Amino acid sequence: MSDAYYLRLTDRLRELLGDPDACVEGRLPAERTLAERFRTTRVTLRQALAQLEGEGRIHRSNRRGWFVSPARLDYDPTRDAGFNDYVRAQGRRPRTEVLLTDTRPHPPAAEALGLPADQPLFHIRRRRFVDDRAVLAESLWVVPERAPGLLEGDYASHSLWGQLRSRWGLSLAHRSLRLYSEALPEREAAELGVAAGSAGLSVRRAIFDERRRPVEYDEEHWLHDALCITVELDGKA
Amino acid sequence: MSDAYYLRLTDRLRELLGDPDACVEGRLPAERTLAERFRTTRVTLRQALAQLEGEGRIHRSNRRGWFVSPARLDYDPTRDAGFNDYVRAQGRRPRTEVLLTDTRPHPPAAEALGLPADQPLFHIRRRRFVDDRAVLAESLWVVPERAPGLLEGDYASHSLWGQLRSRWGLSLAHRSLRLYSEALPEREAAELGVAAGSAGLSVRRAIFDERRRPVEYDEEHWLHDALCITVELDGKA
DNA sequence: CCAGACTTCTGGTCTATACCAGATCAGCAG
DNA sequence: CTGCTGATCTGGTATAGACCAGAAGTCTGG
Q: Residues A178-207: pLDDT tens digits?
């Protein structure tokens, strides 16, 4: 396409990523060091780093440095498997932090579920980690009539969907998903420890039971390089 | 978070986007003009523009300028509706260009379909437009036994899946999807007229009939700001 | 030994300037 | 009217230098 120097620089950096001498424990040398090594300026170097960041090869931690990104997590938003389960199934270490819970109306969730905007909903906000890297900030809203007493239970350590099924006999039959790439909003970026506006992936889900009664709505914000969405579909014409 | 000037600049630019005086026909003023207007340098301005680009608000056309991005296209990769249909259904104008067709083995497709790597496959590569903006570069591979004579037919103007069903009685029962954000590879970037490494979304699909025989595999590369994936799921426990 | 202050290192942001390369269009020659 | 040429517009890439703010390690006084 072009013989832009920074693209060639990007290739040279790519080689560097696999070199354990250069990247100790997945950490790249400082920008100033790299700029000097490649006889260029930080501005140009940062363009090349941003390129690799867009490819999902590296990521930055605020004012700490650049790090090699781990493999993407495979994630099927149509399945009921809990986060902990599928992270472990891929040989990674999951962790979840509940940031807040409350019960109040949330118009966007209500609208997606076809409920009146002032309908109070159980709300859980949490942050999830893979191998100690925060990769997901999410909020979920559950219709109180479907799962009375949810917030009093141990909603943190077990799969929420598993509980909805086993404790309240819900079927989660109908799902409506929307997902698109985004720039992370300020709040989510802060929770994930990245700069506002970093590349992310937004997943929104509305769930209804077999009688088409609304059950749950959730909004997920993932780091763009952290996941690969996989969906398996059977039957249907 | 921070009081970075360029983030405030981003907000000021955001206001500008809706202003028909400033953006004639969706085209932003030149970078030098904007930099002067906001009393800053092109370097800083370009950071702000890149931010808006990440948000999907604007996009660039190589050495022509910056343009306001249209609304995202809703797209359900699990449905059979043809591209032309759902683009029109959203009041937009679709167009498709076939870039090449051939018949030869393609190991990645074969692997996804569970076929030997040297199995020849019908291959169609095309580029698709919404309102004259190229938004999608895709390749698809069809198992010749499932649809003999496919490449001799009129595969361009009608829904390919519709033909697979009506002409060859296929059911397309099982689908396996993978999607993730990516930096557009050189080839796809060139076909879409954007810089290599621009943000994109990759969708790969493997399709099997009701007897689990492999039918088709395809690989789509979308501009990241051009679409919103929606999926509707029914039934299932 | 520990808590808090200080130093140093990192990336984050910004200014100013320069030249290159593709896109575009006006104008000219045929 | 047509097709080419060249000027001019745009963004793309690059240099050099500066200061700021947060992260992290170090040192010091209790």
A: 999 999 998 999 899 888 889 999 999 999
